[in-house]
Specification:
Blueprint (H helix, E strand, L loop, with lengths): L1 E4 L6 H11 L4 E4 L25 E4 L5 H12 L3 E7 L2 E4 L9 H10 L5 H4 L14 E6 L5 E5 L10 E5 L11 E5 L5 E5 L5 E4 L9 E4 L9 E5 L5 E5 L5 E4 L11 E4 L7 E7 L5
Antiparallel strand pairs: 1-3, 2-4, 4-5, 6-9, 6-17, 7-8, 9-10, 11-12, 13-14, 14-17, 15-16
Length: about 280
């Protein structure tokens, strides 16, 4: 049995990221306390619910659609609907669907031409959360066309990290990183070129960050993510949280990724774009 966390500080986008890993052809459409449906996913769950008897709900593949929707309403005193997308249009579950199990409804949506939600709508999932072991492109707030990139596409101890233009393919492994959630609550980011190498903060303020052989105990390879009011994250260095990942204010194509004192500028905010290609 899986559980889905609906804690107050989670965004609706974050909740749906988890839902779509379980049921990739459907998603949750939330109503707020006034009954308005289809609200923006950048809202926190705590801002829409009327009550919070629990921070998590059981999600069982054999649970009926109607059972889950009723359980959610009983727990939070607001409504949720399980929906799907087909040919660019959004559809709600109807009476003929609500007696299907969650797994059956997901399969029905797939067989009837529904879109895989992650792949069709990646921008729905940019808001303030990461999923363990998922693959991401990382881009700065000040220029969404750039990506953190392993210089020359080769991983070795000391390989430099910089910003490089995206080709928008989602297949450039030099710009793809797997998010690893460590037992101490920190995050590490492993290169998809070789998961034996991780982003390393270089230990010195103002110095370029680089790739280094991954060591689960190396504090230079651990980061704490703190939400920005503009969306995205400040990526704080675990060994000293006064420092964050940073690029120069006017940083463009081929600008070095730095470790620098936290100042709160747009050049220190980064977004994580989930990628859904299958990689071996």
């Amino acid at each position: 049995m899986d559980t889905l966390k609906f804690s107050a500080e989670k965004t609706l986008s974050c909740i749906n990221q988890k839902w779509c890993t379980l049921f990739p052809y459907t998603y949750l459409s939330f109503s707020d306390s006034s009954g308005k449906n289809g609200i923006s996913w950048d809202k926190m769950h705590g801002s829409i619910r009327k009550k919070g008897d629990s921070d998590e709900l059981p999600v069982v593949q054999s649970m009926k659609v109607s059972t889950f929707e009723d359980l959610y309403e009983a727990t939070f005193d607001v409504k949720v609907e399980i929906k799907y997308q087909k040919n660019g249009k959004l559809y709600r579950s109807t009476d003929k669907h609500i007696q299907k199990t969650l797994n059956e409804f997901n399969f029905w949506a797939k067989e009837n031409g529904a879109s895989k939600i992650f792949e069709k709508n990646p921008n729905w999932f940019l808001n303030n959360c990461l999923i363990e072991n998922h693959i991401y492109e990382i881009f700065p707030e000040h220029n969404h066309n750039l990506r953190i990139d392993v210089q020359w596409g080769k991983t070795f101890n000391g390989a430099k990290l910089w910003l490089y233009e995206s080709d928008n393919s989602g297949k450039n492994k030099a710009q793809l990183f797997r998010a690893k959630h460590n037992s101490d609550g920190t995050w590490s980011f492993l290169s998809l070129i070789s998961d034996e190498y991780a982003i390393d903060d270089s230990s010195w303020s103002g110095k370029s960050c680089h790739m280094w052989a991954h060591n689960k105990d190396n504090k230079n390879q651990k980061f704490i993510l703190k939400n920005s009011l503009k969306g995205g994250f400040y990526i704080h260095c675990f060994r000293d949280q006064k420092f964050v990942l940073d690029v120069s204010q006017s940083g463009g194509h081929k600008t070095d990724l730095l470790n620098y004192q936290f100042l709160g500028g747009d050049n220190q905010i980064f977004h994580f774009k989930p990628i859904f290609n299958e990689f071996k």
